[in-house]
């Protein structure tokens, strides 16, 4: 329903802009030599601003994904430079973009312009972590996928204006090109590493001899859910303007700054859009979101396909730098960061037994979108190619967050207790409004009138994933 209406809206939105050069339409009128009259000149400029606003919306998805997590941290009380937000099977986990329910997430946001160079003192352990700039570009890994592995290390964080200190012995120097980075990591065994928050330290380099303790924010299970999905309408542009005013402009983004100036968003100036600008921005936010839906949930990237006999695709085709040899990745950036967050080589690992792999599915074996009012079956083939665990998680299409249901469970994994296993080692999973008898532990409840999609994660994937010898069966409709 959502996808179908989105595509229809996209088609109608562009009909007026696709008229040939000799055609006359109400908004665009030309004389016999092809020159526009004065009304058409004004309409052409309005159309130019609208088209640029749509592209600026798509460009802004990356920093607005970071902003969503940042706003979530502030909402729950991690609003200082040296605070940690801890999320694990609580209200915070329900509002994130495509989270995993087995691991624990920890985040910190620090404004290096305010604090000066800072030290991130990592105690080591069975965790994987990343530091990203606010544009969601990868800076470094720490933890298991880093050069230090499970061993402790100290990272010296430097902002865009900071010089590298003369004495850096004992530190790994990390240069970041936005003032506010995101520091995030996953505790892969949260029931074992229960006190990791108390061992990590983040403090100004100037206070390294006597650092203050960090504030740790945990979220109650019954707290109100904050959804980190991108804001809609004018709220999107207001949040994007906050980012533009705070952070330095990168060379690669100068054209987008030029796109936004006629729309009232200009570095160093207040955002006070006129009624005409608001009209264009609201229309562009609507169209831009529908384009993002199509890009994320109906990818046209042929390299994303897992196997030709399957609807499963890799949602994470974005390079950590957002670059290819000759381009900046626009569609791949929208594809991944509209529905998820986090960018690291370890999240699309090429090494056997290291990191993780994400596969996603949005349509059933009949190529129809998953409908929460219908029932489906998924077969997990025997000998899943992983050293750690696999997990299948169900998400709401609108919020890209965990699907809300009466059971409070949105995920099944190889660690799920009481999982029914077939004689050949395969496992049948079920998704629908009601559980099939005897398979309650193999079932995730979906919600009528809500569309959904799913991720299949492999932690520490093995050779059978990389050579594609392990099949991924399509999810089959079994009951209307």
CATH level 4 superfamily of the largest domain: Domain of unknown function DUF1214, C-terminal domain
- Span of the ends, CA to CA: 15 Å
The 3D shape can be described as globular
N-to-C series of helices and strands: HHEHEHEEEEEEHEEHHHHEEEEEEEHE
In short:
The chain has 480 residues and is an alpha+beta fold.
Structural account:
By secondary structure, this protein is α+β, with helices and mostly antiparallel strands. It is 25% helix and 21% strand. The strands form 4 sheets. The chain has a 6-stranded mixed beta sheet with strand order 5-4-8-2-1-10. Strands 7-6-3-9 form a 4-stranded mixed beta sheet. Strands 11-17-13-14 form a 4-stranded antiparallel beta sheet. α2 crosses α8 and α8 packs across α9. The two termini are 15 Å apart. The N terminus is likely disordered.
Show the helix and strand layout:
Elements: H1 2-15, H2 38-75, E1 83-87, H3 91-95, E2 104-109, H4 112-115, E3 118-122, E4 127-132, E5 138-143, E6 153-158, E7 172-175, E8 182-187, H5 196-199, E9 201-204, E10 215-218, H6 234-246, H7 254-260, H8 275-297, H9 331-339, E11 356-361, E12 375-380, E13 386-396, E14 411-413, E15 427-432, E16 443-445, E17 452-461, H10 463-466, E18 476-479
Parallel strand pairs: 1-10, 6-7, 15-16
Antiparallel strand pairs: 1-2, 2-8, 3-6, 3-9, 4-5, 4-8, 11-17, 12-15, 12-18, 13-14, 13-17
Helix pairs in contact: 1-8, 2-6, 2-8, 2-9, 8-9
């Amino acid at each position: 329903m959502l996808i179908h209406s989105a595509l229809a809206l996209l088609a109608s939105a562009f009909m007026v802009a696709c008229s040939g050069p000799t055609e006359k339409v109400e908004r665009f009128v030309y004389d016999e030599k092809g020159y526009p009259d004065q009304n058409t000149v004004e309409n052409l400029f309005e159309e130019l601003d609208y088209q640029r606003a749509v592209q600026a919306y798509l460009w802004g998805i990356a920093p607005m994904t970071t902003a969503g997590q940042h706003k979530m941290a502030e909402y729950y009380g991690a609003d200082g430079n040296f605070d940690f937000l801890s999320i694990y099977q609580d209200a915070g986990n329900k509002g994130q973009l495509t989270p995993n329910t087995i691991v624990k997430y920890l985040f910190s946001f620090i404004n290096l312009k305010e604090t000066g160079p800072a030290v991130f003192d990592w105690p080591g352990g069975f965790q994987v972590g990343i530091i990203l700039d606010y544009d969601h570009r990868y800076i470094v890994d720490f933890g298991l996928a880093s050069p230090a592995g499970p061993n402790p290390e100290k990272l010296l964080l430097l902002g865009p204006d900071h010089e590298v200190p003369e004495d850096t012995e004992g530190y790994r120097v990390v240069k970041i090109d936005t003032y506010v980075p995101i520091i995030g990591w996953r505790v892969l065994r949260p029931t074992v590493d229960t006190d990791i928050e108390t061992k990590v330290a983040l403090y100004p380099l100037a206070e390294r001899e006597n650092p203050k303790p960090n504030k740790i924010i945990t979220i109650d299970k019954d707290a109100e859910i904050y959804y980190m999905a991108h804001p809609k309408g004018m709220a999107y542009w207001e949040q994007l303007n906050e980012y533009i005013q705070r952070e330095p402009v990168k060379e690669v983004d100068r054209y987008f700054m030029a796109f936004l100036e006629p729309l009232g968003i200009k570095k160093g100036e207040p955002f006070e859009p006129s009624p005409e600008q608001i009209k264009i921005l609201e229309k562009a936010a609507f169209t831009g979101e529908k384009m993002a839906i199509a890009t994320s949930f109906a990818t046209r990237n042929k390299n994303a396909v897992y196997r030709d006999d399957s609807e499963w695709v890799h949602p994470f085709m974005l390079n950590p730098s957002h670059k290819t040899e000759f381009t900046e990745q626009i569609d791949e950036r929208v594809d991944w960061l509209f529905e998820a967050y986090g960018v690291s080589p370890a999240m699309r690992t090429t090494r056997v037994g290291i990191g993780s792999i994400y596969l996603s599915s949005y349509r059933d074996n009949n190529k129809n979108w998953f409908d929460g009012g219908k029932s489906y079956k998924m077969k997990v083939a025997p000998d899943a190619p992983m050293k750690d665990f696999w997990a299948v998680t169900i998400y709401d299409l609108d919020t890209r967050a965990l699907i809300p249901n009466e059971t409070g469970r949105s995920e099944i994994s190889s660690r799920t207790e009481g999982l029914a296993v077939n004689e050949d080692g395969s496992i049948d999973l079920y998704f629908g409004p009601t559980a099939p008898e005897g398979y309650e532990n193999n079932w995730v409840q979906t919600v009528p009138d809500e569309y959904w999609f799913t991720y299949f994660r492999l932690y520490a994937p093995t050779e059978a994933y990389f050579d594609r010898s392990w099949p991924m069966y399509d999810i089959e409709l079994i009951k209307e």
